[in-house]
Write a structure and sequence with these properties.
Number of strands: 10
Oligomer: single chain
CATH class: Alpha Beta
Order of helices and strands: EHEEHEHHEEHEHEEEH
Number of helices: 7
Radius of gyration: 16 Å
Length: 210
């Protein structure tokens, strides 16, 4: 069975966060809470762990993973951010949004949209996720924990352990964090385009588009 760590949702224990980081550094796949739902994550350069996530979710190679970043400065390393985009990101991060941006050369090609050379990036408003990102020191490749044939993300970490067994290396129990997907906003054009409505309020972007 996968390792299981109960981490306080408001005051994450540094000792347990260190265990999560050790697992990621060893090539592990970790289930962790975000501000919208639980997700599976691995280190940005870990191709084998990424493929394991694909197999668990039965995703094809067209599926785009997100880069989960700690803050705006980290986003700027991996995405092209001009002044107008920066203002939007500053207003809506951290939060339950995924932003599609033009990727920089720091983004592995397998994470980019094959034709558009874009990448989905988000900054979660979750203390455990933030502590993990700070300790790792780089973004995580991430995908929502929705199992094949299901419409919603799993919400109970004990169910996750029973269903996933040893297919993931560690499950972080951070309490209930919801089951909604993020709202996805494409910022590659002059006008923001909401391509998926989720937990994040999309109306602010509709207003700007108008």
């Amino acid at each position: 069975m996968s390792r299981f760590a109960v981490i306080h949702p408001d005051n994450p224990q540094p000792r347990l966060i260190a265990q999560v980081v050790e697992c990621l550094a060893a090539g592990g796949v970790v289930v962790y809470p975000t501000d919208s739902s639980y997700a599976m994550g691995c280190r940005i350069g870990d191709k084998d762990a990424m493929e394991r996530i694909r197999r668990i979710r039965q995703l094809d190679e067209k599926h785009n993973f997100s880069l989960v970043c700690r803050d705006l400065s980290e986003i700027a390393t991996y995405a092209m951010v001009d002044n107008s985009v920066y203002r939007l990101l500053r207003a809506f991060t951290p939060g339950p949004y995924t932003f599609i941006l033009e990727a920089t050369r720091q983004v592995p090609r397998r994470l980019q949209h094959p034709k558009r050379k874009t990448v989905g990036i988000r900054v979660p408003d979750n203390a455990i996720a933030q502590a993990m990102l700070a300790a790792v020191g780089e973004p995580l490749m991430s995908s929502t924990l929705v199992l094949p044939g299901e419409d919603m993300a799993l919400t109970d970490p004990y169910d996750m352990q029973a269903l996933l067994g040893d297919r993931v290396d560690m499950i972080v129990d951070g309490g209930y964090c919801g089951f909604e997907l993020t709202t996805v906003v494409d910022l590659t054009e002059a006008v923001p385009n909401v391509v998926r409505v989720g937990k994040g309020d999309p109306t602010v972007f509709f207003a700007q588009a108008g």
